Known about the structure:
This is 3'-5' exonuclease. Pfam families: BRCT, RNase_T, TerD. GO terms for molecular function: 3'-5' exonuclease activity; DNA binding; DNA-directed DNA polymerase activity. The protein is α/β, with parallel strands linked by helices. The protein has 4 domains: 174 residues, Nucleotidyltransferase, domain 5, CATH 3.30.420; 103 residues, Rossmann fold; 68 residues, Rossmann fold; 162 residues, Sandwich (Lipoxygenase-1), CATH 2.60.60.30. Helix content is 23%, strand content 23%. A hairpin with a 2-residue loop joins β24 and β25. α5 packs parallel to α7 and α11 runs parallel beside α13. The chain is globular.
Amino acid sequence: MARPVRLPTGHRWVVVDVETSGLRSSTHRVLSVAALALHEDGSVERELVTLLNPGCDPGPVHIHNLTAQRLAGAPRFEEVAKDLLELLDGRTLVAHNASFDYGFLDAEVRRAGMTMPTRQRLCTLALSRRLEIDVPNHKLSTLAAHWKVRQNRAHDAYDDALVLTEVFAHSASLAESLRLPLPVVGCADRRAVYPDRVPRVESPWRNPGRLDPGVGLVQGMKLVISGSTDIPRLALAARLTDAGLDVMNSVSRQTSVVVCNDPHSSSAKVRRAVADGIPVLTERQLGKLLLHVTPGEPKAAAAPSEVQQPRPATTIVPTKPWHGRRVLIVGGSHSDSVLMRSRIVQLGAKPSVNLSAGVTDVLVLDGGELDPRMDRVSARQLPLLTAADVNSALEPAAPPEPGAPLEPIRPPSQWVAPLLARGEVIDLPPQTASLTVNASWRAHTEDDAFDVDVVALLLGEDGRVGCDEDFLFYNSPTSSDGTVELSCDGSSEQGVRIELAALHSDYQCVSVSAAIGGDRTFGELGPISVTVDAPDHTIASFVLDAGTTERTMHFAEIYRRAGRWRLRAVGQGYEYDLATLATEYGVTVDD
């Protein structure tokens, strides 16, 4: 394989790819791993490539083609763990969606009774987003095609690792030419390891409320299990689900009963149940009630007028004069920059938060000529604009003089999505089964990075969480059923993945927000670029830059209305912290 560029100095890189039996590192296993330790010229110094026998069902064979028969003679993870950890030691891990690969390796290493030596990682997905190259999506196959890297066997760990090495080299070289810091993050983050949670199963019955001992169990009641159980927890949960009961993972005001075998338990679930007057039963007491469960009331079907009707696909025809252009603003005061960004949006252009590969123009305000990026702007021969250029472009165009040459039309990016204004609402395309809300801000060096946490709140009809687990943050990044998950592992790029087609009907809205740690504010952070991406293309984008002294901000809402999913660009900030934001939506925050 040709290595046309050198890798960035300052790190010893190891490119890693894993194939797995599923998406959750706590319950699924690694089926194959490829780790390529690289020289500075991108050539492979050492490598470890092997299939692994997981001792379980291999999962989606149609994706990775790793059948149980192929894996039967492979080594167990613990048999290769020592060699793998020696290869990883002292190196920065590179992977496409690095939090996924690192999380699976870390889980396997913990099962083997060992500790991951990796201290830093870089996500090429985050790097690609930061560069804003002109592609419809940031899948590895798409990036390989963009960089003209040959891909022989997609979802083969070794081939993917070889392809990723080339993609990383090209991407890192482009980042260096733009003087964009690489999205290197620490692996010793705040994420904790939690026990398996009960999978959420859609209940067809309405919740009848709290348990009445005179009536007994009624289908649709919400039950929570706390502590150890005689029957294995997942088996007990399955039995309750089969009886028509709705098994939850944490206590809320909607909980009907809590099951706990220890009458003196001081668990948070039992404490909250006692405080709220929710009945607490032992497993034995529950077993007696399960002998007779009263039929529940079915949930009402949506009225015909509320059922989403398929709509014909429409093509958005650009009518604004600067449609498809990306404009970077340098210099100027906060208020001047906010004003100019709003006018750029009016013209149909997208304000850029970084000097990326997608920038087409640079707007220079007072003092902007001193911006350290201006030498890169000159090297790339980017057109320079003034505030007067923006203002004049907003004025009605005068008819050209007879015989005057026409202004050349600048071709827009091939992959331009609708640009929303703050507060604007659109219907999502009816065929949208999944999407990711991605937020990014100006990239800073590793020693000056902002501590920003993107979070998600899964809200019911009353605009509040049903239970604490409906609040997803750095220490609890995935919903109990896996339909909503924090994603994109970068120092200035984070996101929330939402499986709309599988989202439980209790959830009427997914609110995507963020908080800044320490004493810093969104005014210091600067504009936030938000894109809402389907797997293959961007649905819409918007830029939020109204922040001043706020420490938390709502970015976007994905919500149901009349049987349809809608998107709202929010941009509402508050001066309080993340804990206060959570409690405003009904989350119980421990001191």
